[in-house]
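Hi all, posting the design record for the shared folder.

TITLE: backbone redesign
STEP: 1 of 1
STRUCTURE INPUT:
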């Protein structure tokens, strides 16, 4: 029999109550199983020795053979540091100690050959190694050690309390001795043989005690594959169950609203991408299942018209539709744009936001319930309990990343109550969520694996690319001159300031200072300036926004409230102040506010001279490309998946061994095999899938991906 892996870690040889406590608190290790699944962050090759003249300035862990030739003490602000000169036949470096100096001095034999190990720093033309691990060469050669030494995740507290990497390696060894290193297999025979994967036991052994680089790679591959495979299996199953269980309204026909709009009122030819996406949506709406679709399309790719046409299909089938947007400004804009078409088609449409007054609300509520109102546009206000539809058939969420999951599910419950015996049951409306923040495919697969995804990957024809430049603050006068020239040509200009929560006061001051300086350089009455920021009343914001949209003002000074969705085609210049403080996706969104008309548009990124490497990369990316997906990839690399919308809701953040960015290929293959398994056997009922079903159940039981090995 195998050792029970749910045994508390306290029982393991070499652990004991104090260490157990620390392991629980610092690394969340409660059981044997948790410890097995503490995967090393990296490995150090202990077969490689460096000469001093081969050292690189990359702060890596290295091993060097040489002798200490002298010591000196150097006074510093507090106390002193001990510095040893260390040399080999190629050069000289320094070893440095800030603590334990007396002991070091007494125990190290000068002019005797040592192997030192640690991180190197480059300072004042010399390499130094603080607090190196040191071993006499003689001893070193006697000790057998695995070539690839694993380095485990740790915390400062752990190392301060003496639970060093060496200690963790030691207790890991004890664990493997006690369990004899035998663990139940968790993947099916088919997968193991087809993909030539290591068995579970071999993989776990080699990830902790790699025999060589090749076995280590294969062990990592197998464990990463497994992790991603089960996540994909979960997502795909969820989607399948959803489709078979949750019935939607089949929208059987495409009727007059759609057809007349298409023939008579469509102001332009749809792009091929728009046509394709509409077909996908149409197919969903026509099926018996409830649609749950994510529509991705870069800023300006024309998602709104797709939303409208989808709503027309709902209306054609006698249902109501709604469109929810994250800000008041955006809702108003949608409402104005869509009303124009709706009036021509004799469709009743209304706007509901936080600033709708009581009598407007009352009327909207009534007409929604009696079915006179066909389309409702609005903000979060749509989610209030008082807002009840007679028969909501389609709910669309624009800029979905601004909303949470709960909000999506609230919309679900806005469907009409089923007339059957179960009174509280509602049939959910079809759901279309739209986002202009492109999500790299890999991430979309993991985060939104339970949604179907449509992509508009083509911009309407005739769009000019936006010229993007980076300018330093000291060139402001020239930038102002450029703005003046553009305004002379009849164009309009945005000037955007960052508004970041933690320094709101200072940001607000920056914005006001900026507004004043722009007012000075662009004086009335020749120039009119709008200002919009978060502290203004919605009505005032709207008023200012409208003045700009109508062309009454030439310059719009704003915080990022204008980031999403606003459409003023005549605006051709976007100046972003303190651009280094914005994230990439935000910069890309802001830039998307211009380039919406026929004129050449510009985006000017203003920064100070002090820039971090990350900022430089962001600015460089922005000036190089306007491809939203490429930008999203860089963003993902810079920030990791944690900050990207939606990731919190899915398992991707808790990955223990796979890396969503680096292991793209493995993810793709895991998804492929998960799909294949479920296609052939949707209930995992076949004998050869028994192990998958078992593992899958354990996984759902423990929630944590890795809590299922036994
Ligand atoms: P987004 O996807 O960012 O929401 P919008 O729906 O606001 O983009 O569309 C941006 C602009 O492009 C709008 O002015 C819209 O009328 C226009 N547009 C959309 N589709 C097309 C098309 N196929 N041909 C020409 N212009 C289009
Ligand atoms: Mg939009």
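Okay, here is what came back for every position:
SEQUENCE:
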């Amino acid at each position: 029999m195998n050792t029970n892996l749910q045994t508390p870690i306290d029982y393991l040889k070499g652990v004991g109550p104090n260490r157990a406590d620390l392991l629980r608190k610092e690394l969340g290790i409660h059981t044997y199983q948790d410890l097995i699944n503490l995967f090393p962050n990296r490995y150090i090759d202990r077969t490689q020795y460096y000469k001093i003249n081969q050292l690189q300035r990359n702060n890596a862990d290295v091993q060097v053979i040489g002798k200490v030739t002298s010591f000196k003490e150097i006074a510093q602000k507090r106390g002193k540091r001990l510095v040893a000169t260390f040399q080999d036949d190629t050069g000289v470096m320094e070893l440095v100690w800030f603590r334990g100096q007396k002991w070091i001095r007494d125990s190290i034999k000068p002019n005797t050959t040592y192997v030192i190990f640690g991180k190197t720093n480059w300072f004042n033309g010399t390499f130094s190694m603080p607090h190196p691990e040191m071993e006499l060469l003689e001893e070193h050669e006697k000790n057998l050690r695995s070539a690839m030494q694993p380095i485990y995740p740790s915390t400062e507290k752990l190392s301060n309390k003496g639970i060093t990497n060496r200690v963790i390696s030691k207790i890991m060894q004890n664990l493997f001795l006690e369990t004899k290193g035998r663990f139940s297999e968790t993947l099916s025979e088919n997968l193991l043989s087809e993909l030539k994967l290591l068995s579970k036991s071999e993989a776990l052994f080699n990830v902790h005690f790699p025999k060589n680089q090749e076995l280590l790679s294969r062990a990592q591959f197998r464990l990463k594959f497994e992790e991603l495979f089960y996540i994909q299996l979960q997502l795909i199953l969820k989607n399948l169950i959803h489709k078979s269980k949750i019935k939607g309204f089949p929208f059987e026909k495409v009727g007059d609203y759609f057809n007349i709009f298409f023939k008579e009122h469509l102001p332009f030819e749809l792009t091929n991408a728009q046509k394709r996406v509409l077909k996908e949506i149409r197919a969903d709406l026509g099926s018996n299942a409830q649609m749950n679709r994510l529509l991705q399309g870069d800023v300006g790719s024309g998602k709104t018209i797709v939303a409208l046409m989808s709503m027309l299909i709902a209306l054609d089938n006698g249902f109501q539709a709604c469109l929810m947007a994250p800000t008041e400004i955006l809702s108003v804009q949608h409402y104005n744009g869509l009303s124009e078409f709706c009036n021509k088609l004799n469709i009743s449409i209304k706007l509901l936001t936080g600033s709708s007054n009581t009598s407007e609300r009352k009327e909207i509520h009534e007409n929604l319930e009696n079915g006179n109102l066909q389309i409702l546009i609005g903000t979060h206000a749509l989610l209030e309990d008082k807002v009840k539809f007679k028969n909501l058939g389609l709910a669309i969420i624009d800029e979905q990343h601004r909303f949470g999951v709960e909000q999506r599910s609230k919309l679900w419950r806005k469907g009409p109550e089923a007339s059957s015996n179960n009174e509280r049951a509602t049939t959910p409306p079809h759901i279309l969520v739209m986002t202009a923040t492109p999500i790299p495919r890999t991430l979309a697969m993991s985060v939104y694996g339970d949604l179907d995804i449509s992509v508009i990957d083509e911009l309407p024809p005739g769009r000019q690319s936006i010229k993007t430049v980076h300018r330093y603050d000291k060139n402001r006068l020239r930038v102002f001159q450029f703005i003046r020239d553009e305004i002379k040509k009849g164009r309009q200009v945005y000037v955007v300031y960052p508004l970041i929560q933690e320094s709101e006061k200072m940001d607000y001051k920056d914005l006001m200072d900026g507004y004043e300086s722009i007012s000075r350089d662009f004086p009335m009455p020749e120039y009119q300036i709008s200002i919009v920021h978060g502290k203004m009343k919605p009505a005032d914001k709207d008023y200012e926004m409208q003045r700009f949209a109508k062309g009454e003002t030439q310059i719009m000074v704003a915080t990022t409230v204008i980031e999403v969705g606003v459409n003023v085609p005549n605006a051709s210049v976007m100046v972003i102040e303190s651009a280094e403080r914005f994230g990439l996706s935000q910069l890309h969104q802001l830039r998307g506010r211009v380039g919406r008309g026929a004129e050449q548009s510009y985006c000017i990124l203003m920064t100070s001279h002090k820039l971090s490497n990350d900022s430089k990369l962001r600015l460089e990316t922005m000036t190089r490309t306007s491809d939203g997906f490429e930008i999203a990839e860089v963003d993902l690399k810079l920030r990791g998946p944690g900050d990207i919308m939606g990731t919190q809701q899915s398992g991707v953040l808790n990955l223990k061994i796979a890396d969503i960015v680096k292991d793209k290929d493995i993810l793709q293959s895991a998804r492929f095999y998960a799909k294949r398994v479920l296609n052939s056997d949707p209930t995992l009922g076949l004998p050869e899938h028994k192990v998958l079903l078992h593992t899958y159940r354990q996984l759902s039981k423990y929630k944590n991906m890795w809590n299922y090995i036994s």
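COMMENT: Confidence is low (pLDDT under 50) at residues 419-424, 647-652, 705-710.
Let me know if anyone wants the other runs.
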